[in-house]
């Protein structure tokens, strides 16, 4: 199969014998559904795209901690408090697994962190919405984590070894996240009138943003083709969105709640779920930084980083002193 | 905003139970070895996944060069008789 | 994707990966077990268990606030772990105490007023900067480690069982606090100064930890008299501070009587936040 790597400026037009061999080895790995590992040769665009994708995912986990961390202190039962704390802690862990995978591609955690804090990096736009009520904890678990899982399970077979392995670990932990979210909503749906209203309100606010987590429609996603060829994306945006909508359409019945989508139905002829038109204009605004709480999310990260500088420096200084005294 | 964090990178290996060997689980940043092994415990064994942890500074790991794979790993190639599946005649014989 | 499809997809990755993430819940004592199987304690034991539960509950509430705010992601995970452990201890002690009054852990956590809480002043102090939290952890976890070690031999089976699990976890909390105290004490001039300041603002709450109160009386072989822990605590913390290049500050001791329901001004705010949602929906289940 001919190489699909576009020519980069600076490289000679005619690849060297070694480059051709390396590209052939890489192509073979991809074709065999085998794994590319950190020390293998890989095309620069593959490395760049993967670094961006993996680090974006990592940033999303870290920023995603915030809306939920917001409700730990007010959790209405000690059991729910424990569960929420465990979930948010998992998310920090997921971020770390993913930064670890991204680092194997040659960009340091410092550099990735810097990209996030200076607003140069993107993260999942859904976390730029505020968590307004306890029921949001349910909606985030059920819809947001649900969408994330739908995206992530196929990535367990991504062509890049460290990424796939991180995804396996994450997926095992994430399934508890979705269940706990659903159970929060289930408890509310069986509760008082105020609790039911709280639950429906949260579902109403998170439904559309969660559908948009899968990214723009296929015909507006130019990069998807290359990512699928490289097997760092296994299904298209619309395919994943379809599967997700199908799942939640069933699950919402168990809750006795409704999805805020009067157009939602399964088209028997096309074998497709039809849903309302999504507000892609709002999506683009939020991505650009004009969502409700973008600035709050970033500032919290910057503050943690700033306030913690003296701690990190002290730890490094101590380590250096220890190393010196060992040599002496 | 850019601040150099001098916490080096450590690779983490977890042995999940006696009888198995340590498996590479990922990496993390820590200022020194003692903090690294503690962070590894927090990050990789929250669900009872480990009985033993190793942490190694990433820069201390020597790896085989994949470009030399052919000569480095040539010897086992073609020596199928080292694998049980080579021996067809005894297929189906109980306990073999 | 359904969960069994997920499991199949993951299993296809083979043992090498699966074994690194295999989940084995283990058979440790849980609050749910105490609620179902536990035998109700007598009034005196229940009041004692309440003090242990309250200390842990308020401390957990403080520690949880670090999640998403720690100096490095690895610390978000570490402090989160510690907070979860401590909350677990709170839940066990409160569940056990509650059996005496037919109250659940949540009844006790969300529906008592400030003057009914029996926690120490030191756990309700604000987190401050990371150094303040570490010093508070050093003081409290060395104390709790000694306490639970002794309590694990209590004649009250439930208290002993809770303590037996807790002591292992608190050993880790103590180690975490010690590692950080040494690094921050010896690290830079700035970190040493911040630690010195942290010790100065927290030391006034030390004496209260070791005061024997009415709640500790008449429980020989069941409760641990706090005064019996002072010497060992002093020895241990002095050694750590010495290694960290820090000194025990010269401060007064606060006239603190948390065990009697008399608290510092911090607890009111903490409880307001902790209880607000539950109280907005009386009788609701979550």
Automatic annotation (TrEMBL), chain A:
Keywords: Oxidoreductase. Pfam families: PaaA_PaaC. GO terms for biological process: phenylacetate catabolic process. Coiled coil: none annotated. GO terms for molecular function: phenylacetyl-CoA 1,2-epoxidase activity. One of its GO terms (cellular component) is cytosol. It is an enzyme of class 1 (oxidoreductase). InterPro entries: Aromatic_CoA_ox/epox, Ferritin-like, Ferritin-like_SF, PaaA, PaaA_PaaC. Its EC number is 1.14.13.149. Residues 1-22 are annotated as: Disordered. This is 1,2-phenylacetyl-CoA epoxidase subunit A. It comes from Glutamicibacter halophytocola. The lineage of its organism: Bacteria, Bacillati, Actinomycetota, Actinomycetes, Micrococcales.
Automatic annotation (TrEMBL), chain B:
GO terms for molecular function: phenylacetyl-CoA 1,2-epoxidase activity. Its EC number is 1.14.13.149. Keywords: Oxidoreductase. The keyword Oxidoreductase applies. It holds the Pfam family PaaB. It comes from the Bacteria. This is 1,2-phenylacetyl-CoA epoxidase subunit B.
């Amino acid at each position: 199969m001919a190489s699909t790597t576009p020519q980069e400026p600076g490289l000679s037009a005619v690849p060297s014998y070694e480059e051709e061999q390396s590209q052939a080895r890489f192509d073979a790995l991809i074709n065999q559904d085998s794994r590319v590992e950190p020390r293998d040769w890989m095309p620069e665009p593959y490395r760049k795209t993967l670094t961006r994708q993996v680090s974006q995912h990592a940033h999303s986990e870290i920023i995603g901690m915030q809306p939920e961390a917001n409700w730990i202190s007010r959790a209405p039962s000690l059991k729910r408090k424990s569960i929420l704390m465990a979930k948010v802690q998992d998310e920090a862990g997921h971020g770390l697994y993913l930064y670890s995978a991204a680092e194997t591609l040659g960009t340091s955690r410092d550099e990735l962190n810097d990209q996030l804090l200076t607003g140069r990096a993107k993260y999942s736009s859904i976390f730029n919405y505020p968590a307004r009520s306890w029921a949001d904890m349910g909606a985030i678990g059920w819809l947001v984590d649900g969408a994330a899982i739908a995206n992530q399970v196929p990535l367990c077979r991504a062509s890049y070894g460290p990424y796939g392995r991180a995804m396996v670990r994450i997926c095992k932990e994430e399934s508890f996240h979705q269940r706990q979210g659903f159970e929060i909503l289930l408890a509310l749906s069986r509760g008082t009138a105020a609790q039911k209203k709280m639950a429906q309100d949260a579902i109403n606010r998170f439904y559309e943003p969660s559908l948009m987590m899968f990214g723009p429609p296929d015909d507006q996603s130019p990069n998807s083709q290359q990512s699928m060829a490289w097997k760092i994306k296994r299904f298209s945006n619309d395919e994943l969105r379809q599967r997700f909508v199908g799942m939640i359409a069933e699950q919402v019945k168990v809750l006795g709640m409704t999805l805020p989508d009067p157009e939602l139905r399964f088209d028997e002829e096309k074998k497709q779920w039809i849903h309302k038109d999504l507000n892609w204009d709002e999506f683009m605004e939020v991505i650009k930084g004009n969502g409700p709480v973008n600035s709050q999310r970033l500032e919290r990260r910057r503050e943690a980083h700033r306030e913690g500088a003296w701690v990190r420096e002290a730890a490094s200084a101590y380590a250096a002193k220890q190393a010196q005294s060992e040599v002496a | 905003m850019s601040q150099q964090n001098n916490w080096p990178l450590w690779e983490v290996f977890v042995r999940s139970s006696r009888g198995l060997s340590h498996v590479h689980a990922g990496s993390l940043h820590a200022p020194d070895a003692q903090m690294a092994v503690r962070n590894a415990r927090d990050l990789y064994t929250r669900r009872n996944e480990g009985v033993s942890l190793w942490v190694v500074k990433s820069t201390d790991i020597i790896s085989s060069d994949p470009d030399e794979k052919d000569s480095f790993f040539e010897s086992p190639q073609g020596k199928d008789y080292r694998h049980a599946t080579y021996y067809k005649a005894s297929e189906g014989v109980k306990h073999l | 994707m359904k969960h069994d499809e997920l499991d199949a997809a993951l299993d296809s990755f083979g043992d090498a990966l699966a074994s690194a993430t295999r989940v084995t819940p283990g058979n440790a004592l849980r609050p749910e077990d105490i609620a179902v199987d536990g035998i109700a304690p007598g009034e005196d034991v229940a009041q004692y268990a309440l003090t242990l539960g309250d200390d842990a509950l308020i401390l957990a509430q403080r520690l949880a606030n670090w999640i998403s705010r720690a100096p490095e992601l690895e610390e978000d995970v570490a402090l989160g772990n510690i907070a979860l452990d401590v909350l677990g201890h709170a839940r066990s002690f409160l569940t056990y105490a509650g059996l005496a009054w037919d109250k659940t852990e949540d009844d006790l956590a969300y529906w008592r007023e400030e003057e009914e809480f029996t926690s120490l002043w030191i756990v309700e102090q604000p987190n401050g900067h990371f150094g303040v939290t570490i010093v508070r952890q050093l003081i409290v976890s060395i104390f709790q480690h000694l306490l639970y070690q002794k309590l694990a031999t209590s004649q009250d089976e439930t208290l002993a069982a809770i303590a037996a699990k807790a002591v292992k976890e608190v050993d880790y909390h103590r180690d975490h606090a010690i590692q950080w105290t040494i690094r921050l004490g010896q690290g830079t001039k700035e970190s040493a100064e911040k630690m010195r300041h942290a010790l100065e603002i927290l030391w006034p709450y030390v004496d209260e930890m070791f005061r024997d109160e009415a709640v500790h009386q008449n429980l020989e072989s069941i409760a641990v008299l706090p005064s019996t822990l002072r010497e060992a605590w002093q020895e241990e913390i002095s050694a750590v501070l010495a290694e960290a290049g820090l000194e025990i500050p010269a401060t007064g001791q606060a006239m603190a009587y948390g065990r009697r329901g008399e608290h510092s001004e911090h607890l009111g705010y903490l409880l307001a936040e902790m209880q607000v949602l539950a109280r907005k929906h009386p009788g609701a289940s979550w």
